[in-house]
Amino acid sequence: MSRLNLLEETRFEKLPVTVYPDQHIASKTVAHRIAALIKGKQQKGETTVLGLATGATPVGVYEELVRLHKEEGLSFKNVVTFNLDEYYPMQPTAKQSYVTFMNENLFDHIDIERQNINIPDGTLPLEEIPAFCLNYERKIEELGGLDFQVLGIGRTGHIGFNEPGSAPNSGTRLVTLDDLTRRDASRDFGGKENVPTKAITMGIGTIFKAREIVLMAWNGKKASIIKKAVEGEISSEVPATYLQLSDNVEFILDQDAASELTRFDTPWLTRDCVWDEQMTKKAVIWLSCEVKKPILKLTEEDYNNNGMAQLAVDRGPAYNINIDVFNKLQRTITGWPGGKPNADDSQRPERALPEKNALSFFPRTQMMT
Fold it and tell me: Element (H or E) spanning 320, and its range?
């Protein structure tokens, strides 16, 4: 694909997005980028400073980094890490702790120096948290800043635990968790009532200073928030949209997480399409909803003004397309879900030879008693 065509296809996207066939390929790609950074710094005798995330999203990256260490000799001796966040309050030995998560998924399996691991402390008294947060920021700055920041995204659009309402210049701090975030974590805690209401998190301003930022997302559950983060307006309601202001960010997605982006969900708005039966049906239904008209009242002008001129030319006129799609939809409607005796089922979904339903096996008199 030429650069011009690529720009046209991604014109609704306000930051760089790379889509991979699945999360395993994507995770290995990110892991190898991190490995190349570490090796390059090693050759110069320099320290690599990594910002790390928790949750299901980065697990594949950590698995590949562990494999590279064990099988290909990748050393982490020159690596310093700063984790994004931790629940508060939280004991580091608890199974829900991000200390436990990082140890089990990465740190216990590589040769990183323990003094080079930094994770927010969920055991601090409240009055000590502000000083801890300032020191966390200071340590990052003294090391020259983050070289590479790994991010996931929550369904509220949070990055780290920067929930809706977070400021773009926010630093490391104590925050209150959104109710949806706590619901999403409820399985790990045996119920939402057991999920902490607060967390210590790096701020958006802290994340923004990283020289490379990679946000990863997998599966269809993230598709809706990814569309808002990538194509939506910058807003505190979706903190991830602040990343649109960075020149150093890339979103790395699998196909399911990318499925609601315009170039995949409504591709006729970005490029010429192959107008097969399925694509035509989807586009006409979309157009009907978009212009708020019944399918049979859609006009050539509606097609032309909404990116579907090619369809009208290739398979038109519009009137014929409308009739065809309307008939296909009509034929899916039935008042006989169990089948209709002696029906002509060549054009309708009613089966001519229906199966007996469960009630047929009971005498009518028995059913009435």
Answer: helix 318-330
